[in-house]
Automatic annotation (TrEMBL):
<keyword id="KW-0813">Transport</keyword>
<dbReference type="GO" id="GO:1901982">
    <property type="term" value="F:maltose binding"/>
</dbReference>
<dbReference type="GO" id="GO:0055052">
    <property type="term" value="C:ATP-binding cassette (ABC) transporter complex, substrate-binding subunit-containing"/>
</dbReference>
<comment type="similarity">
    <text>Belongs to the bacterial solute-binding protein 1 family.</text>
</comment>
<keyword id="KW-0732">Signal</keyword>
<dbReference type="InterPro" id="IPR006059">
    <property type="entry name" value="SBP"/>
</dbReference>
<dbReference type="GO" id="GO:0042956">
    <property type="term" value="P:maltodextrin transmembrane transport"/>
</dbReference>
<protein>
    <submittedName>
        <fullName>Multiple sugar transport system substrate-binding protein</fullName>
    </submittedName>
</protein>
<dbReference type="GO" id="GO:0015768">
    <property type="term" value="P:maltose transport"/>
</dbReference>
<dbReference type="Pfam" id="PF01547">
    <property type="entry name" value="SBP_bac_1"/>
</dbReference>
<keyword id="KW-0762">Sugar transport</keyword>
<feature type="signal peptide">
    <location>
        <begin position="1"/>
        <end position="22"/>
    </location>
</feature>
Length: 423
């Protein structure tokens, strides 16, 4: 019954990002070097499913898998790229008994999938040399179940950081803001009518969650929407005011851009709050742009940011669990993760790898890495997809001045909770 109900849920695949390596473990299935048909010298084939990336990322993944196979000559990895409706396809295959042995799982989707019981707990496979404590804690905790067991190891992540145009800052005579109040004042000085906005804003819950909870309110309580809380409204009101009153902030579409990185690269925003994915984009598309990054300005004296992360998980029905764990432990171990993140397209979830690659001290990526230890992971319970959709629909109307924020969020909360109750 639970699985049938789960199958009807709409899968939402994160497009915010894109990692991997080491270890060994237990399991009672056939060992590597034996296949399930009994042929002793045949390779075991492990299926690995994920969504596609850009050609450079795909090349890095294939390089990492080639290195794994060289070190594990008795295991063959079959990579399956699911380019559309990823979670829907995975769920359908799992329920039909045809799921891959190992696959990507976004933290956003993790609570609901863990609850169905289709994932293999990984704790029993872990050995001391795998070094769990090396992972950034918020990222690892995102894949723990209510039972405290670990159901996935994060392969990579991105936090959010402040991207700022150095030339515009110099011309306006403003310093990089350290607090949100300073950011708001800087945005006013950097704005030039509708040609350049001080801040480019993505008016969606995935980007605003950490701000929404900065005054002590909760977006989600007991797996239901609670974002109409006056404390949440108070925390989000300045974003709306920057757009409607200060005229210093706008969403990318208002400036003819598709997203924040493009708006920033085109010089239509002096500041945006974006993730690691913006760095290679800006380098490739706007190579002459002079910009810097900084940790997101503090709110109420506290550091805050979002984190988006993806794990490798194991199908509980896999018949090749030992080989599957060998793959997961390599991809999320130090060696494989170093290969996968070596070009900077993705950030390593292991602190030691980030340090070895120099990302923690990198002028552009350093602020993103610094945020990992205190970030709010984009995840909260099994009903977040419903909560998110209703929030986004109504917050945009308030951002555009069509209705007061408190009224918009109250309606969105009521609608979300009715949908949750009728599930």
């Amino acid at each position: 019954m639970k699985r049938k109900k789960w199958l009807t849920m709409v899968g939402i695949t994160s497009v915010l990002m894109g990692s991997m390596l080491a270890g060994c473990g237990g399991g009672d299935e056939k060992t590597a070097g034996e296949d399930t048909s009994g042929g002793k010298d045949e390779k075991i084939e492990v299926t690995l499913a994920g969504w596609g990336g850009n050609p450079s990322e795909q090349k890095l993944l294939q390089q990492t898998l080639d290195e794994f196979e060289a070190k594990h000559p008795d295991i063959k990895v079959k990579l399956e790229v699911i380019s559309e409706q990823y979670m829907d396809v995975i769920k359908t295959r799992l329920i039909g008994g045809e799921g891959p042995d190992v696959f990507y799982l976004d933290a956003f989707e993790a609570p609901a999938l863990i609850e169905t019981g289709v994932l293999e707990p990984l704790d029993k496979y872990v050995t001391d040399d795998f070094d769990i404590n090396d992972f950034e804690k918020p990222l690892l905790d995102a894949f723990k179940g209510k039972d405290g067991k670990i159901y996935g190891f994060p392969k990579d992540y991105s936090t959010l950081a402040l991207f700022y145009n150095k030339k515009m800052f110099q011309e306006a005579g403003v310093d990089v803001p350290k607090t949100w109040d300073e950011l708001r004042e800087a945005a006013k000085k950097l704005t030039k009518g509708t040609k350049v906005y001080g801040l480019g804003v993505a008016p969606e819950l995935a980007r605003l969650y950490y701000i929404a909870e900065s005054k002590g309110g909760k977006v989600v309580t007991d797996n239901k929407a609670s974002f109409a809380d006056p404390k949440v409204v108070e925390a989000l009101q300045p974003i709306v005011d920057m757009h409607l009153k200060d005229k210093s902030a706008a969403q990318p579409s208002e400036a003819g851009a598709g997203w924040g990185g493009e708006m920033f690269g085109q010089g239509k925003a002096a500041m945006v709050i974006e993730g690691n994915w913006a760095i290679p984009f800006l380098q490739d598309t706007f190579p002459n742009l002079e910009y810097g990054t900084a940790e997101i300005p503090t709110i109420n004296g506290k550091k805050a940011t979002m984190a988006y992360t993806v794990a490798y998980v194991m199908n509980k029905d896999s018949k090749k669990k030992k080989a599957a764990w060998e793959l997961i432990s390599y991809l999320t171990g130090k060696e494989g993760m170093k290969t996968w993140t070596s070009k900077g397209y993705a950030l390593p979830t292991r602190k030691s790898v980030a340090a070895e690659l120099g990302y923690d001290k990198d002028p552009l990526r350093g602020p993103l890495v610094a945020g990992a230890s205190y970030a709010t992971v984009w995840q909260n319970g099994t009903n977040l997809p419903i909560i998110m959709n209703n929030f986004n629909n109504q917050f945009v109307s308030a951002f555009l001045g069509e209705r007061p924020l408190d009224e918009a969020l109250k309606e969105a909360q009521e609608t979300a909770n009715k949908e949750i109750e009728s599930k």
